[in-house]
Amino acid sequence: MTDAPEVGELTPPDRTLMGPGPSDVHPRVLRAMSTPLVGHLDPSFVDIMQEVQELLRYTFRTDNEWTIPVSGTGSASMEAAIGNMVEPGETMLVPTNGYFGDRMASMARRAGGEVVTVDAPWGKPLDTAAVQDAFDEHQPDVFGFVHAETSTGVKQPNVPELTDIAHSHDAYVIADTVTSLGGVELEVDDWGIDVAYSGPQKCLSCPPGASPLTLNDRAMDKVLSREAEPRSWYLDISLLEGYWGDERAYHHTAPVTNVYALREALRLVAEEGIEERWDRHLHVAGALKAAAEAMGLGLNPDDEFWLPSLNAVLVPDGVDAGAAIDYLLEQYDLEIAGGLGALSGDIFRIGCMGHSARPQNVAFLATALGEALEAQGADVDVEAGLGAMRDALNR
């Protein structure tokens, strides 16, 4: 037998989280997580489950009965969506314009599906005509797209046009809303989205562990009439229906504390108002964008595709992105991130999400980032950036 390890008290650093997620957690959400634990079938918890579902419907802008938090991170709700909607032998159309389109493809293949792609460069959205051509050529059963691509800072426009194309071919639409739910305009019902999944740790400013998912009646009919069971028992929506539906029958031990946290985070959304919350993200992120541009830094996407919740700021020539990121962490306990995949080393990914989307955070970030870039000899005008930021915040 080995001796018991000597482990001290938990003292993580107190960071300001302005990366691609997680975002800063609201103090009310942290307090909710410290409240007493009850059983996952306790009558009081059943009432909480109902409240969470109602709040999720409000935030997703949907009347879908089947709207739940999946026990797990955003990747769990993603796999629940794809693993249940894609049956063996079916074809799923996925985008190539970002890291998370690639993840959709991987999950579809693991579900036994055939994958075809609609192509667009990293940093660009899907083109409506290209989606139409892909449907005409491949006739996919399921179409997945990323509403807010965390790897590129691109927001997908014209979503209703894309869903209309899919539905005209009798296909189902799955939307990745991980970086948009609660921070960027999203209309699940009005835009004709059949299935949407998200994560709690981005614009909802909630710790990961219970991840939003919604399916309309058409999608649930497909799930419940599958010929082959989904390959994941844990994420089988037909089984989860027994727990989150009217029966409230045991399926698994839900992460009770994470559900508490999600409930409080969603209460904050409802108190602020979903449209007002979208406006706040747009206003505060607009000040961040103005600061970056006035400093002499560009953004990766065109303005019409700019994603307020995730700003992809171009790394100046001669600057080591990793060194600048380390500087912010070491000198200021401030977290941002670098690019993924095709954009590795080319962009800073700067989140402006949820509780992190506040004027003081943007001012802190603009000042510290300017200093980090100047330390490497970059030609940036920090004073101009701060002035543009103040002007934008005061509009």
Automatic annotation (TrEMBL):
Residues 1-24 are annotated as: Disordered. GO terms for biological process: glycine biosynthetic process, by transamination of glyoxylate. One of its GO terms (molecular function) is alanine-glyoxylate transaminase activity. Gene3D superfamilies: Aspartate Aminotransferase, domain 1, Type I PLP-dependent aspartate aminotransferase-like (Major domain). Its cofactor is pyridoxal 5'-phosphate. The keyword Nuclease does not apply. The keyword Transferase applies. Keywords: Aminotransferase, Pyridoxal phosphate, Pyruvate, Transferase. Residues 39-290 form the Aminotransferase class V domain. It comes from the Archaea. PANTHER family: ALANINE--GLYOXYLATE AMINOTRANSFERASE (PTHR21152:SF40), AMINOTRANSFERASE CLASS V (PTHR21152). Belongs to the class-V pyridoxal-phosphate-dependent aminotransferase family. This is Alanine-glyoxylate transaminase / serine-glyoxylate transaminase / serine-pyruvate transaminase.
